[in-house]
């Protein structure tokens, strides 16, 4: 997990937003309007906000990545970042402290800027912010509940015997046949009324009988 977090952090620092990887990721706001943490999804009330400072490890990785790329042309970023992580672990505490001190200084400046932004919020912006926070929390809870339900269903499926699974497999196959027949019937009706544009695939009109050709 530390390595994955490190990879994510380095990719973010290099311009690949964490939001591209996980739409719901981002830190939470503290109660009720303390902007020590601002989520990535927040944008309507504040059009811009200061970027969170890089951690000591991410700062070190960003410095080292170009060097490792030059030394290992053609290597994947993930491979290079793994090597950088190993180098970071072996780095003496005295050298790590340089990066940690830089992070602490940036973090203090970051907090001060967020406090300034909070003080400039209008009452209407505060109300909007609170609503957005509530909507986000509800959405996140809903996603978590769905994932838990899916996990429970998956576990139940794994515990079924082969004969028990076969019952559901056959039901699924029957549904496929029913669906195909219903779609085929609907498509034929659309062809008859001249609405081929509604079809998802090309369907040839039924051939005319010999009597109709006369």
Short description:
This protein has 214 residues and is mainly α.
Can you tag this structure with a few keywords?
single chain; mainly alpha; DNA Binding (I), subunit A; 8 helices; disordered N terminus
Description:
The chain is mainly alpha-helical and 214 residues long. It has helices at 2-13, 18-21, 56-71, 77-90, 93-119, 123-158, 162-192, 210-213. The protein contains eight helices and no strands. α1 (2-13) crosses α3, α3 packs across α4 and α3 (56-71) crosses α5 (93-119). The protein has a domain at 45-120: High mobility group box domain (DNA Binding (I), subunit A), CATH 1.10.30.10.
Q: Which spans have pLDDT < 50 for at least 5 consecutive residues?
A: 1-8, 10-43
Q: Tally the helices.
A: 8
Structural class: mainly alpha
Strand content: under 5%
Strand count = 0
Shape: extended
Helix content: 55-70%
What distance separates the N and C termini? 76 Å
CATH topology of the domain at 45-120: DNA Binding (I), subunit A
* CATH H-tier superfamily of the domain at 45-120: High mobility group box domain
Note the main sheet: none
The assembly state of the depicted protein chains is single chain
Gyration radius from CA atoms, angstroms: 29 Å
Instruction: Tell me which CATH architecture of the domain at 45-120 applies here.
Output: Orthogonal Bundle
The whole-number mean of residue pLDDT values reads 77
DNA-binding region: 50-118, 151-187
Keywords: DNA-binding, Nucleus
GO molecular function: DNA binding
Protein name: Transcription factor A, mitochondrial
